[in-house]
Amino acid sequence: MMSGEDMTHTYLDETIMYDLLYKKRKTMGIYIDGYGHIELRIPKETPDERINQLIEEKWDWIQKSIKETKDRMAGQKERVYSNGEVFQYLGCNYPAEIVQDINSKQDHVAVEGDKLVIYVMQNEDERIKQALKRFYYQRCKALVEDRIRYYQSSFKLKTAVNQNL
Q1: What residues does each domain of the chain span?
Q2: What is the pLDDT of residues 3-56, one digit of tens each?
Q3: In angstroms, rounded to a whole number, what is the distance separating the alpha carbons of residues 58 and 62?
Q4: Are the beta carbons of 41 and 27 closer than 8 angstroms?
Q5: Helix, strand or coil for residue 32?
């Protein structure tokens, strides 16, 4: 078998697909990403029988992980950019209120009371999406910079951190 080969394995009348990667390592490992993609990382010169044995020993765990991934992905719905759609911010849910303001110089978002108010020049999904991305980015940047300022006295690199802010 070649390194990085697409493989299948059937056990208990079920078949899985996985990537087989031969690595310079001492142990075998099975990795499943957030999309249910399975990867086996195996030491070079590992016999096929031992690979099959590993898969069958971990079969229940593999099936459980794949099912959890499918359930999680099925639970994700396509985002709708309309009034009442709920968005999270700092662990809280905020219903969106979209305000069209043709006189606004830039689309922007503000937390106002218990709502996330999205001000846009035109009520278009892409404009709303971009305004939300900017909002989350700017808020995240401000929070990170605040934490850096808070903890910078604990570090000797104080001046270097200040120059990067």
Answers
A1: 5-75, 86-164
A2: 468 899 999 999 999 999 998 999 999 999 888 899 999 999 999 999 999 999
A3: 6
A4: no
A5: strand
The neighbouring-strand residues paired with 111 are 116
**H helix count then E strand count, the chain:** 4, 8
Amino acid at site 9: H
DSSP string covering 95-134, please? EEEEEE-TT-SS-EEEEETTEEEEEESS--HHHHHHHHHH
Q: What are phi and psi of 4, to 5 degrees?
A: 80, 20
Q: Is the pTM of this model over 0.85?
A: no
**What does the alpha-carbon distance between residue 59 and residue 82 come to, in Å, rounded to a whole number?**
43
pLDDT tens for each residue of 118-129: 999 988 899 999
